[in-house]
Amino acid sequence: MADSDYVLEARGVMKIFGNHVALDNVDFGLKAGEVHALLGENGAGKSTLIKILTGAYQPDGGGIYVDGTQVSLDNPLHAQTFGIGTVYQEVNLLPNRSVAENLFLGHQPLRFGFVNFRKMEADARVILKNYDLNIDPSSELGTHSVAVQQIVAIARAVQLSGKVLILDEPTASLDRNEVERLFEVVRGLKAKGLAIIFITHFLDQVFAISDRVTVLRNGKLIETRALDALTRTDVVRLMLGKDIAFSGATDVEPGEAPNEVLVEFKGYGRKRSVLPFDLTIHKGEVVGVAGLLGSGRTEVARIMFGADPADQGTVSVNGKPSAIRKTTDAIKHGFGFCPEDRKAEGILGDLSVRENIIIALQGKLGWFKALNRDEQMEIAGRFGESMDIRAASLDMPVKLLSGGNQQKVILSRWLATDPAFLILDEPTRGIDVGAHAEIVRTINRLRDEGMAMLVISSELDEVVAYSSRIVVMRDREMVAELRGKNINPGVIVQAIANNPDEAVA
Amino acid sequence: MKRSLRPLAATAVIFIIAYAASVLQFPSMLSTRVLGNFLTDNAFLGIAAVGMTFVIISGGIDLSVGAVIGFTGVLVAVLISWLGVHPLLAFVIVLGVAALFGAAMGAAIHYLKVPSFIVTLAGMFLARGGASVITQDSVPINHEFYSAISDLMIRLPGGGRLSFIGLLMVAIFLLGALLAHRTRFGSYVYALGGNPVSALLMGVPVARTTVQIYMLSSVLAALSGIVFSLYTSAGYPLAAVGVELDAISAVVIGGTLLTGGYGFVLGTFVGVMLLGLVQTYIIFDGTLSSWWTKIVIGVLLFLFIVLQRIIFAASAPGEEKPEKA
């Protein structure tokens, strides 16, 4: 294709971190006057590509071309001089300063060396008018809603760069009306000939506004296509890389008489996080949670465990109404939670394997019933053996273990508290095949022993393998509950894509 | 009213009420003499507090201020009395030394990513230790230039006197206000205090601004040391111990948020005046121990921190964002 077709282009871009190839020979072209969606699951290489296009990272191979000329972008400010501006998910402006100052910071009009406030605010008013924002430019930015702040961020980016606008999940913390407002702004900019890259986890939004879509998976370019030739199911399929036609059904026998109810959530939800949902969990059952990243999967887990308290709805445990406002409430009720981000929220890296295993149990026992060293060794040793934790010694720092073994340590931590209900968020992410199989085996064993579990996973085959039931999340809403024969990857993909008319092969 | 103005308004109202109450009890407190002495007696504190205002708005803290005042006083006294340097040249030298000192602290804070609290704590020990190494004793300054400056004043009707150092403080406050509120440098200071990550992404020269902020604070502390030497006609290594804490109190009472991002230079002026009022009242009363000053300052400080907390918590827009997926 001719150079002049693309305003911004990446050709054969490579990025390697250590021995992990984050981007493998990726081509990406952006035309003027289009909204180009960039899609992919976590770890697909989206953010790496964006960081290369904005100059935050330097590519290890390939090149970046602006209007057909190769450039090297040293940092985001340097990229700005080539007309590339970025708006991030978190509003990266100054809430403590005025709207006008946020638009012009570093470029304020001066008079005799002093900032000319009158001119700055008049200029700001003109810019804000272009975006249909009727706010006082001298008002403090932080007093406005996130949506308005996001539009101000876009205005600043367009003002300073003006050719390419990268929107990195700008809608993540907006409600529906606010998203629509933002989209109007984006459409207006597109009509003015700006090239826009749009990153989001919400498929509806992709279809609402984008012209073309590029899908990345595992650091490789999968497809760049015009969106009107694609259905939702196609897109989900491209993202997840599942060949639906050959996926088998579940190996869990459906139709068993349900055991007694353990936990029951009714109208449970949290504003701006998860829409209210109903869910009943029985003893000895594994409820799988499927959905794309950002669909509210993790939020559901956090609300159930009280890490973010729910602000509506009720929960009852063993038939008794209960309140779970904080994590210690949940632990008292016999809940356990293995979070998604093992490094940040799970392991205590510098503590030993033994201490990591006993810490939740100690927390449950309280301050005054300290487990002595022998008891600790006994408990840690028991789980070390039953979970097959491969560590040179139970006293070595847990951060030295492999990802799979760390995951087993966290599982052991909660199993030591003898939980009734265990929430696992992506228990198999980033661990090797052997440990993966072992964790799946453990989940099956615990279910057979009568424990109730809620397991969140992006691996559809895996969810299908151990779930008694599967709930599907989309756009922060629980949209489907699948059981029996419906538990197969094809139906899940359809439920995620929300396209009931489309037949699956 | 903008919420950032509210603590300042509260301080101003409290000052007026407190002053009115004092005047009711001691009518002689309403005189140009007392008002003039307000400025003179608090000149060194006020000048140091201007620098502290910039530091705190940027989200930092400068604990070295009192020690720099002490060090400057000793250095000026030694240069003039022992080495025979002309006072004006001595001033230039100490201001230069202080600028380098502040720049070094700012550079350490930015490049080594050490909290300002730690860096300026080290700076405090360095400066105080350095002053004591030069001399353990008070060094008197007997120079005609010093007596000339001390005699410079505007006589007010009613026996009041506006001294040179009092007017210098007022001038520094006005310049500080101009710098904070009307220049790009000022907007960068607020940007750093608001959100350093955003500031960097928005193109604020973070390194340069950080170095400049601590340079400014140290230079003003040195100027304050010069003023203190003019005030006492001597340099003493243990002078102005704890003045940094008084300056921080004045800044916070003047409506600047201790966590940075919000504040006014002129608010600090009201804060300094309020502290001065408390001291003057206790002198007028005569029966109270001067330590009551500390207690009143403590209570005021606590009240203002609570007040700011309430104002900023109550008017925060929207609610907390949900945790990231």
Automatic annotation (TrEMBL), chain A:
| Broad class of where this protein is predominantly found | membrane
GO molecular-function terms, A-Z? ATP binding; ATP hydrolysis activity
List localization entries. Cell membrane
- KW ATP-binding (keyword) present: yes
Q: Where are the transmembrane segments?
A: none
Q: Which PROSITE patterns would you find in this protein's record?
A: ABC_TRANSPORTER_1 (PS00211), ABC_TRANSPORTER_2 (PS50893)
**Sequence ranges assigned to domain ABC transporter in this UniProt record:** 8-243, 257-500
Q: Does the keyword NAD apply?
A: no
Domain of life the protein comes from: Bacteria
Keyword annotations from UniProtKB, A to Z: ATP-binding, Cell membrane, Membrane, Nucleotide-binding, Repeat, Sugar transport, Translocase, Transport
Q: Name one Pfam family in it.
A: ABC_tran
The protein's matches in PANTHER family, at most eight in alphabetical order, are given as: CARBOHYDRATE TRANSPORT ATP-BINDING PROTEIN MG119-RELATED (PTHR43790), GALACTOFURANOSE TRANSPORTER ATP-BINDING PROTEIN YTFR (PTHR43790:SF9)
| Protein name in the entry | Simple sugar transport system ATP-binding protein
TrEMBL record, chain B:
Checking InterPro entries in the record gives: ABC_transp_permease
Primary place of residence?
membrane
- Give the transmembrane region(s): 36-56, 63-82, 88-109, 162-180, 187-207, 213-231, 264-284, 291-312
**GO terms for cellular component:** plasma membrane
Q: Where in the cell is it found?
A: Cell membrane
Q: Name one Pfam family in it.
A: BPD_transp_2
Q: How does it sit in the membrane?
A: Multi-pass membrane protein
Molecular function GO terms recorded: transmembrane transporter activity
Leader peptide range in chain numbering: none
The UniProt keyword set, sorted, is: Cell membrane, Membrane, Sugar transport, Transmembrane, Transmembrane helix, Transport
What the entry lists under NCBIfam families is as follows: PRK11618.1
What name goes with this protein?
ABC transporter permease
User: What species is this protein from?
Assistant: Devosia psychrophila
